[in-house]
Amino acid sequence: MLENVENSSGTSLLDCVMMKVVINMKVRTIGVPLQEGCEIEGSRFACKALQMKGVFFDEMVDVNRDLDTRSLVADVCSQIKELSLDAHDHGEFPLVIGGDHALAIGSIASTMQVQMLKVLWVDAHTDINTPEASITKRIHGMPVATVMGEGYPELVELMEEERLGVEDIAMLGIRSMDPFEEQMVKDANICMYTYDQIEEQGLVNVLEDLDEMMDLPVHVSLDLDAMSPSVCKGVNTPVEGGFDFEDIMFLLEYVFDEYDVVSMDVVEYNPLHDQDGKTADMIVEIVDYVKERLMEKKREI
Q: 21-300 has which fold?
């Protein structure tokens, strides 16, 4: 009988079977060497450059560059979705790292299949363009509209029956919008703080203002161009002004303290623009920080 058999600590095997085992949450790093969403050379080397800095990827998305752009981005996002879903199924935290911001379609689509969700979009851009309205036609300017149900059909369908509501996203650090995006944000009353507003009000005050809104599990989408190009050069589409790296680390500390962060992506790294390697060093520090924080978060099996 199990109850009569004791292990070396004096606990019966039956007790061990009945106990809930609490373990640290694992981060699953997913590398995405995607540049086709922005059509700017460089982000396809993002993962290799980060590996040279010591970043380990548990999974690497395969980019089939024989496909046309839309099919390629859809295939990449589909792979991200499946890998992230598998991470969620195993009680792991998907951390998607790499190329252009189109990849967020896959990571958000994945987490929304698992639970209701809020999104914290930290970026110089709103990325809420549609294929019809976009000036550049670059998909990395469309992920927010796509996860809300407006975009190329092969990308929207990754959301299945789920759609992100306008009330479910907060944008921080915005410094560049097309006229269409500006009007769309205004008409939809999307929660958005420009960098100038954050400077005026203070980052901690803005984050505290979001506390009530972030009442569900949160996906953090961090575009490195949220930072000033004076401190973060290795991005695809830099915009003057923006956060310091210390601001970003404070923001992450706050959201991991106060919100239930369940998934994250770090995007728009372009090593060809990162001549001094400092942007890669920042990514390493961000990855290490997320892993450290998730070590503190327990899950039961």
A: Arginase; Chain A (3.40.800)
